[in-house]
Design goal:
The protein is of the alpha+beta class. The chain has two domains: 157 residues, Aminopeptidase (3-Layer(aba) Sandwich); 118 residues, Aminopeptidase (3-Layer(aba) Sandwich), CATH 3.40.630. It is 34% helix and 28% strand. The chain is built from ten helices and 13 strands. Strands 1, 2, 3, 4, 5, 6, 7, 12 and 13 form a nine-stranded mixed beta sheet that branches. Strand 4, helix 3 and strand 5 form a beta-alpha-beta unit. It starts with a strand and ends with a strand. The model has no long low-confidence stretch (mean pLDDT 96).
Length: 315
């Protein structure tokens, strides 16, 4: 008989083994599991569920509800996430996944949750949604248990071996400079200006990433900024937000100035800088819409596509 229990460390190796046999596009090792699951600030063992049948692990669900506020988002008290859901392929279609989801929803309701998102827990998500190619059976599963499809997100990548700064880049940079804009790597005398710029225009997540780079003494090597004629920061891009040299983002320019091509220039400078550092691969996990179209114009390719899911008005 199948039993649902809260997380038990004795099953750690079984969870990792099940994860790697099932989430084949997102394999992990014990270090990653502990860092991103167990050592996450918001980990609660009663929201991390295991399904056991005859002492055999057959399912795993990681639920997240904030215990610590996330910058300007705060605790988001009515919101929670199903970050990971896995059922052993040998035991699928026996109601185990449905039972795990029902159990976590009841526990979330007891904690005041009214809205659940799938996979997109920030800042510690593994992927933004359900991969339509790798886990296509999960799409119908989440629809079946009452989750609404919110739209699409993509992960993108680009090789930098063939990246060069083109004549178009130099012409657009020259025009921008004639208007008083300048582009440069971040320096620590800009710290407070950058924090204020990001917090005011892009929110706590971006501010958090920049602060983390500053604290770790990485900001001067991983952040580029655009400055206007009044010496104010108007654009920003960075990489290495999770410690991976090749991971790009976040990246943004003031809405009112996007017609000047500042984003084009910053992105090209970042790619050139990465290539000069012998970092020949760039990727990021989550974008869509206009952002995706921008990157496609710069030779960045979609390598994964996801559907985003949410359930509201629980109980």
């Amino acid at each position: 008989m199948m039993e649902i229990r809260k997380y038990d460390h004795r099953y750690e190796s079984d969870i990792i083994d099940l994860w790697n046999r099932t989430l084949v596009s997102d394999s992990i090792n014990p270090t990653i599991f502990r860092k991103q699951v167990l050592f996450d600030d918001n980990f609660q063992d009663d929201l991390c569920l295991i399904a056991i049948e005859n002492e055999l692990l057959v399912g795993f669900l990681l639920g997240i509800k904030r215990v610590y506020p996330y910058l300007d988002r705060g605790l988001e008290p009515d919101r929670a996430w199903i970050s990971i859901l896995i059922v052993d392929p040998k035991f699928q279609r026996k109601g185990i996944g449905t039972a795990l989801v029902k159990e976590i929803e009841e526990r979330f309701i007891d904690k005041g949750v009214k809205r659940i998102n799938i996979a997109s827990y920030s800042p510690g998500y593994f992927f933004p949604g359900v991969d339509v190619a790798a886990y296509k059976e999960s799409l119908e599963f989440f629809r079946k248990v009452g989750y609404m499809d919110l739209g699409e997100a993509v992960s993108m990548e680009r090789s930098l071996f063939n990246h060069v700064l083109t004549d178009e880049f130099f012409e657009r940079k020259k025009r921008a400079e004639e208007l008083g804009f300048r582009f440069m790597p971040f320096t620590y005398d800009r710290s407070f200006d950058l924090i204020e710029f990001l917090g005011t225009n892009f929110g706590g997540g971006w501010k958090y990433n920049a602060l983390t780079a500053m604290r770790n003494k990485l900001a001067e090597d991983t952040i580029w900024i655009a400055i206007d004629s009044k010496n104010k920061i108007v654009g920003f891009c960075m990489r290495k937000m999770d410690g991976n040299d090749h991971r790009f983002g976040p990246f943004g320019v003031l809405d009112t100035l996007r017609s000047h091509g500042l984003g084009f220039i910053l992105f090209e400078l970042m790619m050139n800088d990465m290539k000069q550092r012998h970092l020949y691969h760039l990727y990021f996990l989550w974008t869509g819409g206009a952002g995706m179209r921008f990157y496609l114009r710069h030779g960045v390719h979609v390598y994964r596509t996801y559907r985003l899911f949410e359930k509201k008005e629980l109980g």
